[in-house]
Design a protein that fits this description.
two-stranded antiparallel sheet, about 550 residues, mainly alpha, elongated
């Protein structure tokens, strides 16, 4: 048991503590602090809550989200987040708010991703410190720490574990490893469409780079790889059907022109969001959090040591390490090139031959593969240093370091890498709860809700609060915000935007709207006049009022 605690429990606790530190002060009040100044966070809170609400009640209606009514398949307009949602569902079922669930999943995503990185490097080197360096720098880096509003961008644990599974499949050809690879690919698919594309590209790169190892046993490895692919495809089939239907019905295909807007640039690989770097030298390169991938000087330094080690010839074990290092270089390079999007011809070629690429918008996020490769290379570099000191993989002590000194040095290196990435403390927005007036809709016999102002398509992100508030009643909502905005919403917005003019109200009736929630403060200086107009009409029946002047009406 003591050995088990040292190998797994201790590192798991370290990963959790790092998650708390890097998101500070989130853990001090996870039900109160929020990232709700960003509509993406509110959308993801809704997705997590919708899955927890619908899956046990009406699983076959899971993708029929209540937003963007009357459009169908609204959950498929964005990431599925089913795996994070299931992790957070017990908290939701016990009455936890969508914000509490989301914040706990932010902490869990960071901690699990760090621990997965640890598992991979420990499996390859037997060195706990190297594992912690890999896990920490992959989970907490200049890119992930700008994505607190994107829980899918923090639950990356299946990516390194899939890398470990395909490595084992190549080296052993076991069915068990093929099934693990399928499982991790399914986890990625049920978390994020981006992740399953990253995983597919990563596996293809690994198989190409390490072809010399598996071709001598091609029949065995190919059969196991095919089994893995079939199992993963079958497991993800319900998801694929839902997204395929949405793509056909809604025209959800990203053009290459749209990809160019969210592509990385070479300067982005010098952009660091960490406070220390940003305040000293990197601010001139940091223009957009989407384009920020500087891995840190610690990572670069130890990755260079790993490459230097790989250049030397040695034992059979060292040959395998050298092959893994070459594999990681290829993964990192592929991620870097693809993150540049349309700035190179490679992305356009892959876009044409690999249809799942056509659902992606932010090519820059391929930088996650670069960061994974660099973090793992840094782990190999630290393992080599510790092996020479007799503290890592069992190589006799060279006499240069005493055991305690080597352990302390490793701790300093890991701490320094985390300090490089540190952005905390963050300025969160205080969440005071969903206004109680929304609960009046729960027992209404029929509800189709429109919230006003009803924003035009280009400002649909303003609906983020409306989407989150719908978790208090789950009734059909004509407003919406997601990765895709349906054409039906745009058509309604062209009319409803002019509320409370008569033609806008008549348009609502024709659309089947039964209730209207008015946000006077969002109308600016016209808010009081809007309320006076509605209170003077017989066809608007006031049901209740709430915080910030909210007023809920029945529309007759």
């Amino acid at each position: 048991m003591p050995r088990f605690r040292r190998t797994w429990t201790g590192p798991a606790v370290v990963c959790l503590l790092l998650a708390v530190a890097h998101t500070w002060p989130l853990a001090t009040a996870p039900a109160t602090w929020s990232s709700n100044d960003n509509a993406d966070a509110q959308l993801n809170e809704w997705i997590l809550a919708w899955v927890a609400h619908t899956l046990p009640r009406a699983p076959f209606d899971l993708f029929q989200g209540n937003i963007f009514y009357p459009a169908t398949g609204a959950l498929a307009f964005s990431e599925p987040l089913l795996v994070p949602a299931l992790l957070g569902a017990p908290v939701a079922w016990l009455g936890g708010s969508p914000v509490l669930v989301y914040n706990l999943l932010v902490l869990a995503g960071f901690a699990l991703t760090a621990f997965a990185g640890y598992v991979v490097m420990f499996a390859w080197t037997g060195d706990r410190a190297a594992g912690l360096l890999t896990g920490a720098t992959f989970a907490f880096n200049t890119h992930t720490l700008t994505r607190l509003a994107h829980v899918q961008g923090l639950h990356l644990y299946a990516l390194p574990l899939a890398l470990l599974a395909v490595d084992r499949l190549i080296t052993t050809g076991r069915t068990r490893d093929a099934l693990w690879l399928a499982a991790w690919m399914a986890v990625m698919a049920y978390t994020s469409g981006y992740l399953v594309v990253f995983g597919s590209v990563m596996i293809a790169v690994v198989m190409i780079v390490r072809a010399g190892e598996w071709i001598p046993q091609a029949r065995t490895v190919a059969i196991r790889l095919a089994l893995s692919a079939i199992v993963a495809i079958v497991a993800a089939a319900p998801l694929a059907v839902a997204y395929r239907r949405a793509a056909i019905e809604q025209g959800m295909v990203r053009s290459l022109a749209s990809v160019s807007e969210f592509s990385a640039t070479p300067a982005g690989y010098l952009a660091a969001s960490g406070t220390m770097h940003h305040a000293t030298w990197s601010a001139r390169f940091y223009k957009d959090p989407v384009n920020s991938f500087f891995p840190g000087f610690i990572v670069i330094g130890f990755a260079a040591l790993a490459l230097a080690h790989a250049a030397r010839r040695g034992t059979r074990t060292e040959t395998l390490t050298r092959r893994r290092i070459g594999m990681l270089v290829a993964v990192a390079a592929t991620g870097c090139v693809l993150s540049l999007g349309t700035n190179t011809p490679v992305y356009g070629w892959l876009y044409g031959v690999f249809p799942p690429m056509q659902g992606l918008r932010a090519a820059a996020r391929f930088g996650n593969l670069f960061l994974l490769g660099m973090s793992a290379l840094a782990g190999f570099g630290l393992a080599e240093v510790r092996a020479k000191a007799g503290q890592g993989t069992g190589v006799p002590n060279s006499g240069r370091f005493r055991p305690r000194s080597a352990m302390a040095l490793a701790a300093v290196i890991i701490a320094a890498a985390n300090i490089e990435a540190l952005r905390a403390p963050f300025d969160y927005r205080r969440f005071t709860g969903i206004p109680n007036v929304y609960t009046l809709l729960v027992d209404e016999p029929r509800v189709v809700l429109a919230e006003v102002p009803f924003y035009p398509r280009q400002a649909a992100f303003e609906n983020g609060e409306y989407v989150l508030n719908s978790t208090a009643h789950w009734r059909p909502l004509m407003n919406g915000y997601s990765g895709h905005t349906p054409a039906s919403y745009a058509a309604y917005a062209d009319v409803f935007w002019y509320f409370p003019r008569e033609h806008a109200i008549e348009g609502m009736r024709r659309a089947g709207v039964t209730h209207v929630m008015v946000h006077p403060d969002r109308f600016g200086h016209e808010g009081d006049d809007v309320i006076r107009q509605l209170d003077g009409r017989r066809d608007f029946e006031l049901m209740g009022a709430g915080a910030h002047g909210l007023r809920l009406y029945r529309l007759h």
